[in-house]
């Protein structure tokens, strides 16, 4: 299962307790469905730049300008790709006029179609993706995306380099899930200790972690003050 397929169920779970305002993601989550869901639920979708796809030496989709008024694409030679139909995957299909394409001087850079026809698709929620693309250039969204490498990517790096998460130790979904759960629990405890130490660092003392069975566990730290958790 691709990562992007689990994002919306995860956000629904988080929204039961929190009110997310900004969601920062990498290129794997840059899909029209995710952008539509986030903007539709009053959450800003911060997405990265992705390089244009396509065959080298040919025009990319970004070289074709979409005209919302005409519901058509303008090609680099200023001809129209008209709307044809909406397919089952939620994409609008646009095609050029073969008569015009056959004698076009830019055809060798546009399409290799034997019937001299250029086709493009546009998702019905493409506007939400374009909204994120426009805001990507703002200082606000640049600052948000910069924090991603300092927080999320740092967690992944620590898990792989310091906690053996580069490879699975066990086989089977249940055992690997257990390994991941224990690993990130240990990492969270390390963060808790670090944050508490930074918050109040003065003289040496103790702090207590009380388990569910009410058996206290004591930890001593030098030159740091901790409160009961």
Automatic annotation (TrEMBL):
Pfam family, one: DDE_Tnp_1_6
PANTHER family membership: TRANSPOSASE, TRANSPOSASE DDE DOMAIN-CONTAINING PROTEIN
Organism annotation: Listeria floridensis FSL S10-1187
Superkingdom assignment: Bacteria
InterPro entries: Tnp_DDE_dom
Domain Transposase DDE: 75-193
Protein's name according to its UniProt entry: Transposase
């Amino acid at each position: 299962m691709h990562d992007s397929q689990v994002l919306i169920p995860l956000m629904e779970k988080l929204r039961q307790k929190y009110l997310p305002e900004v969601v920062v993601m990498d290129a794997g989550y840059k899909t029209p469905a995710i952008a539509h869901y986030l903007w539709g639920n009053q959450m800003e979708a911060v997405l990265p730049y992705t390089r244009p796809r396509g065959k080298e030496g040919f025009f990319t989709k970004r070289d074709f300008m979409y005209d919302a008024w005409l519901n058509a694409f303008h090609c680099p030679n200023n001809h129209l790709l008209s709307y044809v139909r909406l397919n089952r995957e939620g994409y609008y299909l646009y095609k050029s006029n073969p008569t015009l394409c056959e004698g076009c001087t830019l055809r060798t850079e546009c399409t290799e179609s034997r019937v001299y026809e250029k086709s493009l698709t546009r998702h019905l929620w493409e506007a939400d993706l374009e909204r994120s693309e426009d805001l990507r250039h703002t200082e606000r969204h640049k600052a948000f995306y910069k924090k991603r490498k300092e927080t999320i990517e740092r967690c992944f790096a620590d898990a792989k380099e310091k906690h053996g998460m580069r490879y699975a130790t066990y086989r089977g979904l249940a055992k690997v899930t257990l390994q991941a759960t224990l690993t990130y629990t240990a990492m969270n405890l390390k963060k808790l200790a670090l944050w508490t130490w930074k918050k109040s660092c003065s003289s040496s003392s103790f702090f207590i972690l009380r388990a569910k069975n009410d058996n206290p566990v004591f930890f001593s730290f030098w030159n740091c003050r901790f409160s009961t958790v």
